[in-house]
Amino acid sequence: MLLKMELVFSALLLACLHHLVLSNLQGDALYQLKLSLGAPANQLIDWNPSHVDPCTWSNVICDNNDQVTSVTLSGMNCSGTLSSKIGILNTLTTLTLKGNGITGEIPKEFGNLSSLSSLDLGNNRLSGEIPSSLGDLKRLQFLTLSQNNLTGAIPESLSRLQNLINIFTGNRLNCGAKFPQPCESDNSDSGASNKPKIGIIVGIVGGTIILLLFVGLLFFVCKSRHKGYKHDMFVDVEGEVDQRIAFGQLKRFAYRELQLATDNFNEKNILGQGGFGKVYKGVLQDNTKVAVKRLTDFESPGGDAAFQREVEMISVAVHRNLLRLIGFCTTPSERLLVYPFMPNLSVAYRLRERKPEEPVLDWATRKRVALGAARGLEYLHEHCNPKIIHRDVKAANVLLDEDFEAVVGDFGLAKLVDVKKTNVTTQVRGTMGHIAPEYLSTGKSSERTDVFGYGIMLLELVTGQRAIDFSRLEEEDDVLLLDHVKKLEREKRLDDIVDCNLNEHYNIQEVEMMIQVALLCTQASPEDRPAMSEVVRMLEGEGLAERWEEWQHVEDTRRQEYERLQRRFEWGDDSSYNQLAIELSGGR
Fold first, then answer.
1. Residue 392 annotated as catalytic
2. How much is the pLDDT for 448?
3. Catalytic: which of 136, 236, 392, 499?
């Protein structure tokens, strides 16, 4: 017995030592970054080497294993250099240092950040060449180096990163044949209008070369709009706020223009409606089809200017799986948002409201929708600054473009959240059956409340059913779709879970995987739910087995404890005390 206790103690001691060493290494690397950046005295005050755990520091996000995954230090007036020590943070997925005055070179040690998916060093004073070691970052998807003083050739190693979206504008770089998008900007018209200034490669060999390069750029832009093109396309826009938008700009519409486009907001043009207003189909004078959201439940304490600022902040979120905002309109009594028209409407429509002659969403499309929606939410949570919480993720708010690609829409409920805060307390908004339990009970929302809603949306995709269905009362007690699926999963009745409209045209292993991800996303405790970046990886086949095994162990333990309490208080079928004990001890 003594030996067993010693072994347990030793294991605990080793675990504590490992955590302490990990915290010290991470904390030391981040503190060295603070020192090298020359952060002002009023910034990063809590980045103190005597506070061992960096997961408690501002602007730092960690995963459930206390590993640093995100560091965001934008616009802090830092004027120092980048520390090579940061290279030890091999769990870091997001590093954002844009909008400072950082000088010096990019350390080659940045190539050791093996988990990095987003690196934003834009709008600084970095010099020297781009290190070729960045090409070792196999997971890198977003690389922003715009508006610096970088020189030399763009490393060929970056061209081998197939999923990379890179922005090099505003430097003196040699693009080479591997990088068709612009890498040098022409700022000669900076005193002109506030239209977006797209970086154009300026040649010095002659007008013919300039023309050829311009044609090449035009071809690249057109190609990016082709349905087979899988990358996002961003360009830098000069202005007071550092932002990324798609080609084009946010337009301020006249009310009369939208009135004409929607036939005076005719009821026959309604595409849908929710707690914040109705959405109308419209056609602009140039025959562009749009969706006009007419808000009926808005608060604008600062009036028109405050609403415009909020709209402009939301418009910064540009991703192929997010609904792009075209423009807006304000009058003393109206607030309207204008979006592109989505010809295939919403996932909810395709699952439950489609016309008989319209095709069923096949399994391959449902998988693509699941992954696309996850990537859109990941962008909101982990690549926007400040991050955006949607707060009403459901099948009705996931739209489908002409190619049936997922586009997360309806940002009427979204709140822009300071990255220093872990949650925000607001009036509870959302749809019953999709709302996370902690949000419903406390009014506190975080990105993990979105994860819960996403998990329910996955179950909608698999089953085709609503999150709450009272018709199930006739056969069982599980009104909630989540409880219904949990029961069938425990009984290994996976085929009974799948939407019957698929007519058995699906892969049962893929169904099982999607259900497992959904159940991990809908755990009662927000701390136990995965981040959206983890969800993306699990849907891509990485890390699901381990998380699922851990979840099953916890669920089995919880169920055994529940059954033990049932037996303990089982004093007869007619005992009201027995029933009360069971209700109080059961899972909520």
1. yes
2. 92
3. 392
Q: Is there a single domain that holds both residue 554 and residue 537?
A: no
Q: What is the pLDDT of residue 7?
A: 46
pLDDT digits (tens, 9 = 90+) for 187-226: 333 333 333 333 333 333 344 443 444 444 444 444 433 3
With contact defined as beta carbons under 8 Å apart, do 82 and 36 qualify? yes
Q: CA 27 to CA 53: how far, in whole Å?
A: 7
What length is written for the chain? 588
The CA distance from 586 to 588, in Å, is: 6
Measured CA to CA in angstroms, residue 218 lies from 175, 201, 210, 221, 523 at distances of 16, 12, 12, 5, 48
Q: What is the pLDDT of residues 491-539, one digit of tens each?
A: 889 888 898 898 888 899 999 999 999 999 998 888 889 999 999 999 9
Angstrom distance (rounded) from CA 39 to CA 33: 9
- One DSSP character per residue, 27-49 reads HHHHHHHHHHHT--TTSSTT--T
- CA–CA distance, 228 with 226 (Å, rounded to integer): 5
Which of 416, 376, 370 minimizes the C-alpha distance to 395?
370
Estimate to the nearest angstrom the gap between the alpha carbon of 572 and the chain centroid. Answer: 51
Amino acid at 96: T
- pLDDT of residue 584 exceeding 50, the answer is no
Same-domain status, 538 and 548: no
H/E element, 239:
none
Contact (Cβ atoms closer than 8 angstroms) between residue 497 and residue 515: yes
10 Å Cβ neighbour count for 343? Answer: 12
Pairing of strands 94-96, 387-389: unpaired
Range of the domain at 85: 11-102
Q: In angstroms, rounded to a whole number, what is the distance separating the alpha carbons of residues 13 and 124?
A: 44
Please give the Cα distance from 257 to 287 (Å, whole number): 12
Please check whether residue 182 lies inside any domain of the structure: no
- Residues 372 and 514 occupy one common structural domain: yes
Number of domains in the chain: 4
> Are 504 and 571 contained in the same domain?
no
Distance separating alpha carbons of residues 164 and 358, to the nearest angstrom: 36
CA distances from 162 to 115, 181, 183, 324 (A): 16, 15, 18, 24
Read off the pLDDT of residues 325-370 as tens digits, 9 standing for 90 and up: 888 888 878 888 899 999 999 999 999 988 888 889 999 999 999 9
* 505 and 413 in a common domain: yes
Q: Can you give 75-134 as a three-state secondary structure string?
A: CCCCCCCCCHHHHHCCCCCEEECCCCCCCCCCCHHHHHCCCCCEEECCCCCCEECCCHHH
pLDDT for 36 equals 94
Lookup: tokens for 374: 């996850």
Among residues 77, 102, 127, which one ends one of the domains? 102
Alpha-carbon 450 to chain mean position:
9
504 and 428 part of one domain: yes
Give the CATH number of the domain where residue 274 resides: 3.30.200.20
- In 311-391, DSSP assigns E strands to 327-330, 335-340, 387-389
Q: What are the start-end ranges of the E strands in 414-560?
A: 415-417, 424-425, 444-445
Nearest CA to 161 among 174, 186, 143, 185? 143
